Amino acid sequence: MALTIAKPTSAVFAAGVAALFGAFFGIFVGTATGSTLLGLVGGAAVIFALSWAAATFLRGQEKAARWGFIVLFTAGGFLFSGVPGLVLGLIFGTFFGWLTFYVASGRYRTGLPPYSTPRQVLWHFAFRTIAGLILVFLITPILVVMPLSFNAEDFFTFTPEMLSFDPEGYSLKHYRDFFTNSDWQGALWNSVRIAPVATILAVGFGTLAAIGLSQPHVPFRQAIMAILISPMIVPLIISAAGMYFFYSRIGLQGTYLGVVLAHAALGIPFVIITVTATLVGFDNSLTRAAANMGADPVTTFFRVQMPLILPGVISGGLFAFITSFDEVVVVLFVGSAGQKTLPWQMFIGLREQISPTILAVATILVIISIGLLTTVELLRRRSERLRGMSPS
Amino acid sequence: MSDTTQNGPMLAADGTPLKRSLARALRRQKMRALMLISPLLIFVLVTFIAPIADMLFRSVENQMVSETLPTTTQVLGEWDHSAGEPPAEPVYEALYYDLFIAAEAKEHTKLGTRLNYEYTGVSSLFRSTGRGLDDLGDDYLDELEEVDDRWGEGAFWYDLMTGTGSTDEDLVAAHAKRLEQLTGDKLSGDVGFAPSTEIAALLPKTTAAYADFAVYTALVDGDVVAEEDPWESVYVGLMTDLQTADVASYSGPEAEALQTAAEAAQGIEYIPLKTFFAEEDEDWLNVDIWATVQTYSSKYTSGYFLNAVDLQLTPDGIEARPENQQIYIMLFKRTMFMSLAITFSCIALGYPVAWLLANLPASKANLLMILVLLPFWTSLLVRTSAWKVMLQQQGVINDVLVWLGLVDDAARLVMINNQFGTIVAMTHILLPFMILPLYSVMQGIPPSYLRAAKSLGATNWTAFWRVYFPQSVPGIGAGSILVFILAIGYYITPEIVGGTTGTFISNRIAYHISSSLNWGLGAALGAILLAVVLLLYWAYDKIVGIDNVKLG
């Protein structure tokens, strides 16, 4: 709904806006080179001059002017401080070239109603900046961990070598440590041994129960649902305490079976929720049709119902898997040294002898999460397509 | 399908009335649904609900005192602590035998630890007295052996106690049952001993002590009773019995030896057990300790719950704990306060993001949604470790601040191991749980309402505050309860970044379970936390509905 027609603004206005940003980034460049104040003033002045010139003389040739910005900044950065300068210059050049013409051409107003006052426009962008900062807050911890895991030193902060993109500053030694250290390998092996079994248990029982719960007449449906969902609601520390007491009574505490059962119980609510959600749109006439054509209930289930709800079952299984794979509180109490899982090892590492190997493990786990997230999303879309809903 | 007859009910194809046929079909359907659900239901009941029930049970369970000192607590029942006098001799006598077998089974220190939660110093009292119990019996044995060497022999004792005539099997069975209660193990097997009714009537205390010995020897140690030398408590029992018993008329096996011993006993100095305990430790005359034992001798107690709210159950009723031990109310308050702070930060940060996501075109919103979902899907420990790395004094944030000159290198900010660290890290971890419900509610608010308000002359603020905000309140409510429920029971993050001032009640529960081993108190704290969470969850169900729980 581009109701607003872009009206070119004055060169001074565009240059002024750009100069504000120039001053802001100037602070960082200035601090890096010695004087914060000089950076602030210099950044503002340089950007103002360049933007004004571009908006005044090159208004017609936007593309060329923006390339000019990029070349100018990249070259300047490279001459100034080598490779890091080149990267920063590339970013700054692209940004300021875009900003100058975004403001100068008046395109910034296109998303807003034509009658917006300048204050409303300012608020619009200020709001987006705030929301953007919050999103940065959400993502930063993960982004910080990834590069730090390649740190050549045993520090938890960026070394000067890393900041100057010196290959010396980076290494894979923390990854090497993860793959050679017997503690970490033992923990990984335990996680790999526990999570799939817990998942199979949760999915097996959970899918059957979800089908049962989706029948039209289920006595005590609310109560049963509340019981089955409860492992998700009860705080983990309470589940862990209860399981510790009870499992030590029946001799399961500190055994592999105990941990698997506990993790399966924690994963069940996720399976129930995803599979019942898939079954909501399930057309029961399909099973009747299958029965009508002579299929017995088992065949109907595996040939008709199962393929249709499979995406839900798999994504429920993935949730159950990640629950077990990430779980630390319950395994701390129910498990013993023989069941030390990856999160447990990380927890020990964080509480006692903090080692940077944790960051390498964290990075690997983030990559696994991204893979799982993508899988679940694709499955959800497939499920909705199969059930004739439009993917949203 | 059905036949309609002129008069009479409608019939199904097989001739049964349609109503009944329908009911049967319905019942079959219900049964099938239940059959499908039952495996999981049983699984969850066993692996999850039973543990929770066990925890709730442990928060009131208090069988240790009455199981370890069954006779003592029974005799002590009539004692009145308000008189200010320590109990009379029978109580000390009962205590001696109870404590003796408990010490043999190494259960007395556990009881000491248990009572120490209620009265400081009891633990060492039990431990030291447990070591001195043998001495009294040893002294008596030395004196008796001077009269007749055989008093120290197992076979002699066995003959004496077995006697002739009818035997009292029930007595041994009762002692075996008591031992089972004490050790908590299921004991099986044949004791191979039963006292004669005659000797049991003549020497009741000796018989009781010997029965304890016999049961323990046969069932726990797995030895033959006749071959083992009796416990020292048996001699104490014999000496006590000989003070009053008339053994002259006894004619069973070893009657002569018994009569000689009875004569000799006149010359042996008999030490009443009250005196013995008082010599072992002055504290045994302490009325408060006895009152504590009496107060906690019931099978169930509210003591743990009272402890969990900084009260204590004393013989005089419920009292506040000493000032320096009052920590739980403070911890509950802190947990509440910090959870609220986290919830409010989540609202403040989540609202703008949810608004932006709901008002952007779908393609852009989906892209930004990834930024919200990625942390949601990332391992909790990864995010916690990230915050530990960032907030440290030598961490990324402090480094940047120092580099910018905003903070002096010598005065780096302390952002971890305190409340600030916990609130920041947990806000980050729980923020997606606020954004997702807010987003789904905001998606349902037509943007035209806001435009309508503006076209009617409302300012931006009025339009938002009077028109948009009220419609987004359900989302805030759902998100807040969700975040609050999750925050209140968090354990890992406060444990790692909370230090001492930023920990929650859950950290204390974990401490009691794994370090201080005061399981009852841990269970009581857990039960209170569980009640709060269930209450909140009930509210969540009323506002949002369980079925609306969505993932991702």
Segments of chain B where pLDDT lies below 50 for 5+ residues?
1-5
Helix content of chain A: over 70%
Cα radius of gyration of chain A in angstroms:
29 Å
Order of helices and strands of chain A: HHHHHHHHHHHHHHH
| Major sheet summary line of chain B | 2 strands, antiparallel
Number of strands of chain B: 2
Let me know the average pLDDT of chain B.
86
Average pLDDT figure of chain A: 86
Category by helix and strand content of chain B = mainly alpha
Instruction: Let me know the CATH homologous superfamily of the largest domain in chain A.
Output: MetI-like
The quaternary structure here is: heterodimer
Structural class of chain A: mainly alpha
Beta strand count of chain A: 0
CA-CA gap between termini of chain A: 21 Å
Number of domains of chain B: 3
Sheet having the most strands of chain A? none
Q: Reading side by side through the largest sheet of chain B, how are the strands ordered?
A: 1-2
Backbone shape of chain B = elongated
Radius of gyration of chain B: 36 Å
User: In the CATH hierarchy, what is the architecture of the largest domain in chain A at level 2?
Assistant: Orthogonal Bundle
Transmembrane segments (chain B): 33-53, 336-358, 365-382, 420-441, 473-492, 519-540
Family (chain B): Belongs to the binding-protein-dependent transport system permease family. CysTW subfamily.
Domain ABC transmembrane type-1 (chain B): 332-540
Protein name (chain B): ABC transporter permease
